């Protein structure tokens, strides 16, 4: 089969890390299925795999006994089942499906993504979506929404299930009617899913973006309002709290940001939940503007991994900082059902041909015009 391969000697910019090569179709374990990939979603897993940072995925897999000197990324896909392992039940050859990236053992704990066996297909597990065929475990297969194209169906699962867990997975801090939710990167893949999920729960989504075009897009898909972060100057790690002049400058900007949230909401009301993924640049502000007794839930560090904050606002106002990583089986099913029912739109905005996959990931790394979700045509273009 043809696949967009990453090799260790090419780690670096996505535009040069991915190369189309011919490799054998993967063999199946008894609980796995082989799927003909019709389309595959683009997300940061592919960017991180291409760079070999923060994890050298090829070396990681070798340390676990994998024999391959290459990696096939891709953690979202739609396709057609073409073979099933002997222990697979309820899935048949010919089924039209979407795939999620959760990979865990059959005897995993109830919250499977917390199990010691949990991995991410297409990142920690080889033979991901960026090939003509892929292998997945049976629990990662869900029915394709009949009203969606192959491309639309490939675009939403990773970002959507991640956002669903962040909003519904950490009781009692789950989104409720009237809750303000601050969503960083509101115009991107996860942000576009989070905006819709907050609306579906009766909450008030406020998006943070980097341009007026992105702000307009967020409002088109349901944001109450958007904040352009380019109008503020206090991003990055929070340093020198003991330097009163510098700290007062930072605090003045953070309070100005907070007042813009109040203006958009229409009352002096802070976010009950903050959907965090930039990390280093934004975490100090997230921790400050979060409501007393609220939660900052973080699933990535796309701007860096150093998390700083003024701890006085955390303990005195009893705020929760919660890590979140993808989703469990029940959350994946619940989110996919919302798409099947038409309550969440995939927000697909760009479709690339297979040979243009490296450029799609470079655009994501460079943050060039990110609106909604990107996908790669594979089987659907033939």
Automatic annotation (TrEMBL):
Domain (Enoyl reductase (ER)) ranges: 12-376
Enzyme class: oxidoreductase
EC number, as in UniProt: 1.3.1.85
GO molecular function, one term: crotonyl-CoA reductase activity
Keywords annotated in UniProt: NADP, Oxidoreductase
Protein name: Crotonyl-CoA carboxylase/reductase
Organism of this sequence: Pseudomonas kairouanensis
Lineage, broadest ranks: Bacteria, Pseudomonadati, Pseudomonadota, Gammaproteobacteria, Pseudomonadales
Gene assigned in the entry: ccrA
């Amino acid at each position: 089969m043809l696949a967009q391969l990453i090799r260790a000697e090419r780690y670096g910019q996505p535009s040069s890390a991915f190369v189309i090569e011919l490799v054998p179709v993967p063999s199946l374990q008894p609980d796995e299925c082989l799927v003909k990939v019709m389309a595959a979603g683009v997300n940061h897993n592919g960017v991180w795999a291409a760079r070999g940072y923060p994890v050298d995925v090829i070396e990681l897999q070798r340390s676990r006994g994998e024999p391959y000197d290459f990696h096939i990324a891709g953690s979202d896909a739609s396709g057609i089942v073409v073979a099933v392992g002997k222990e697979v039940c309820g899935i048949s050859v010919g089924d039209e499906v979407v795939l999620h990236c959760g990979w865990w053992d059959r005897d995993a704990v109830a919250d499977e993504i917390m199990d010691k066996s949990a991995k991410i297909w297409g990142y920690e597990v080889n033979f991901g979506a960026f090939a003509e065929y892929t292998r997945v475990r049976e629990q990662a297969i869900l029915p394709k929404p009949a009203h969606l194209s192959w491309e639309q169906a490939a675009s939403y699962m990773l970002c959507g299930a991640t956002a669903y867990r962040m909003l519904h997975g950490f009781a009692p801090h789950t989104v409720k009617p009237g809750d303000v939710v601050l969503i960083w990167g509101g115009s991107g893949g996860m942000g576009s899913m989070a905006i819709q999920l907050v609306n579906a729960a009766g909450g008030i989504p406020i998006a943070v973006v980097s341009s007026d075009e992105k702000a307009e897009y967020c409002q088109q898909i349901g944001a109450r309002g958007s904040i352009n972060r380019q109008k503020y100057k206090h991003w990055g790690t929070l340093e020198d709290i003991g330097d009163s002049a510098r700290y007062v400058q930072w605090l003045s900007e953070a309070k100005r940001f907070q007042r813009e949230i109040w203006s958009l909401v229409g009352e002096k009301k802070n976010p009950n939940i903050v959907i965090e993924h930039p990390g280093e640049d934004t975490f100090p502000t997230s921790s400050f503007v979060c409501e007393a007794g609220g939660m900052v839930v973080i699933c990535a560090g796309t701007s860096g991994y150093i998390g700083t904050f003024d701890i006085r606002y955390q303990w005195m106002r009893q705020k929760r900082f919660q890590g979140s990583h993808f989703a469990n089986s029940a959350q994946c099913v619940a989110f996919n059902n919302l798409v099947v029912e038409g309550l969440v739109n995939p927000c697909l905005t760009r479709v690339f041909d297979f040979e243009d996959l490296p450029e799609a990931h470079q655009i994501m790394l460079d943050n060039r015009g990110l609106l909604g979700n990107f996908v790669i045509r594979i089987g659907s273009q033939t």
